[in-house]
Amino acid sequence: MAKWRVSLVQLDVDLxxxxxxxxxxxxxxxxxxxxxxxxVLPELWPVGAFAAAAFAAAAEDLTGPTASAMxxxxxxxxxxxxxxxxxxxAPDGRRYNTALLFGPDGRPAARYRKxxxxxxxxxEARVLAGGRDVVTARLPALTLGLSTCYDLRFPExxxxxxxxxxxxxxxxxxWPRRRLAHWRALLCARAIENQAYVLxxxxxxxxxxxxxxxxxxxxxxxxxxxxxxxxPAQVLTAVLDPAAVVRTRAEFPVLRDRVLDRPPT
Length: 265
What we know:
alpha/beta, six-stranded mixed beta sheet, 14 strands, globular
C-alpha cells in the first residue's frame, strides 16, 4: 500500500487582515502543497473561532467565497483538501461550525457540522447549532473520520468514527495556548485507544484576544508523535504508512476485547 503525504497548514488567524486577503493567502498555501496527498487547515480560520460576535456577519453558504476558493485551490494543487471549517449559513436558517472536504478535482467530498460546541452557554455554544451526524470519508489510502476542536474531549465520538471505519482521525482546531498540555495528551490518547492516525491542524497567532496553541501534530496508531509544529504559523508535513493501521490492530488486537458498546459482528 502506497504511503501518503499529509500537510497540515497551521495558519496565523489574524483578524486585522481582511477576510478576502486571508482567503487568498490560505489558497496560495494550499496550492504550494501540490505533491501532497492530503492538506488540512485549521478551524474557523475565515472568521476566528473566538470571535463569536462576528459569526452572523461572516456566515456563508457552501457555495460562498470560502468554499469556492478552497475548491479551486484543491483542484489546482490536485490534493484532497480538508479546508478547516467556516460558519455555515444553512438552508434550515441555522448557523453551524462546518468542516469541508474537497477532492483533488475540487468537488465537495464530505461535510461535517461540529457536534460539540465550546463555550459553556456562551460564545460558539450560544450562537451556533450543533451537528448530529458522525462523518467519515473514504480516500484512496485511508478512511478519514472528521472532528473539530472541542470534539477532541469526547472519546465516544471517536469510537463512533472507529466503528464507521475510520483509520485516520482528522482534528481541525483553534485550541488555545493555555490548554496546550490537554491538546497534546488528548491527541495521543485518541490515537492509542482507536489504533488510528491522528492528523490535528491547529491555528496559530492570537485572535479575539485568545493566543492559539499551534503545535499541530501527526500521531501514529501506536501513539507516537510522528511530527509536531511549534507555536508560529508553519506547514507541517509527514508521511503516513496506511499499512501501519492494519499492522497495529493485528499485532496488538485490543479492539477485539471491547465489551461495552461493542458494534455488532
